[in-house]
Amino acid sequence: MTQNAPDTRLNSLAPVFKASGDPLRLEILRVLERDTFGVLELSHIFDMRQSGMSHHLKVLSRAGLLEAQREGNAIFYRRPLHGRDDSTSGAAVRQVFELVDRMPLAKERRDRIDAIRKQRADQSQAFFARHADQFREQQELIAAFDRYAGPVTRLLRDHPDRTGWQRALEIGPGEGAFLDTLSELCTSVTALDNSSDMLSRSEESCRQAGLDNVDFVLGSTDALAPDATTSYDLIVANMVLHHVASPAAILSDSARLLAGGGTLIVSDLCRHDQNWARNACGDLWLGFEPEELTAWAGDAGLDAGETLFIGLRNGFQIQVREFRKPSHTAAQSFLDAHIAQTQQKG
């Protein structure tokens, strides 16, 4: 190498800064802070032609600022998971993300993002409304309830904080099969679902089981979190994330709803390529890499705990994840301020 030759680390920085040296591309990165969108969705958000958006996405992807994620026959774009990338370019990418995330989104952008999320949520709700009577049959096409409910129950009953749990929240309780366990472990339980059909079935299940400490709320975490007057010691989301419009937002909302020292338990599918699950089971996403959940939880200020993987005969794999909210006052204050700021930005 000659004396005037640039350091190879500088060579790795050049594509990152070149690709990010455009205000529109920076705004694309800002929009993709917590969400995953396809080309057509991003074209709608930015009111531009698909060909132009595809060009910008290609430039950002080549520079390592975005990565493509295949969901069946569709391709979505997301920000890469750089949690374990200690390279110079990885540090530069994280710095770019940190800076753009400080910028507020224009109201027009937020409104269009909300419209896409609502469209996805409506799609999921419509599926469950059509198949409410066959919920258990649809569910067992992938995983029977007992395959994940048993391990989750054992994890909760053996949890070191179990005796301190008073209030629990279950996100997406389905027919209410897991509410019996939560009712036993906690003084009060809230069942939250955005499907009135499924919430009615949960309520009927609890009535038949004689559970009198469960409240039922029709809605979603994004509506509950900003004005939360109650914090929860335990939040459970069993096989829910692959049905929701923005899985990362569920973790962020849960962090907001958790009390200091509280626990979030997530069970969901690992990434798979069985596209039939979209039509047969109403899945919006084909599972998740464990690193995705860890990164989203970390962004929300949650610490990763226990991890359990459950293999199924049909080729699917379930991951059971534990995340905890720091209990000390300083960390809690910082987390609440960070999440509040993130929500205000959109």
Automatic annotation (TrEMBL):
<dbReference type="InterPro" id="IPR036388">
    <property type="entry name" value="WH-like_DNA-bd_sf"/>
</dbReference>
<protein>
    <submittedName>
        <fullName>ArsR family transcriptional regulator</fullName>
    </submittedName>
</protein>
<dbReference type="InterPro" id="IPR036390">
    <property type="entry name" value="WH_DNA-bd_sf"/>
</dbReference>
<dbReference type="GO" id="GO:0003700">
    <property type="term" value="F:DNA-binding transcription factor activity"/>
</dbReference>
<dbReference type="Pfam" id="PF12840">
    <property type="entry name" value="HTH_20"/>
</dbReference>
<dbReference type="Pfam" id="PF08241">
    <property type="entry name" value="Methyltransf_11"/>
</dbReference>
<dbReference type="GO" id="GO:0008757">
    <property type="term" value="F:S-adenosylmethionine-dependent methyltransferase activity"/>
</dbReference>
<dbReference type="InterPro" id="IPR029063">
    <property type="entry name" value="SAM-dependent_MTases_sf"/>
</dbReference>
<dbReference type="InterPro" id="IPR011991">
    <property type="entry name" value="ArsR-like_HTH"/>
</dbReference>
<dbReference type="InterPro" id="IPR013216">
    <property type="entry name" value="Methyltransf_11"/>
</dbReference>
<feature type="domain" description="HTH arsR-type">
    <location>
        <begin position="5"/>
        <end position="111"/>
    </location>
</feature>
<dbReference type="InterPro" id="IPR001845">
    <property type="entry name" value="HTH_ArsR_DNA-bd_dom"/>
</dbReference>
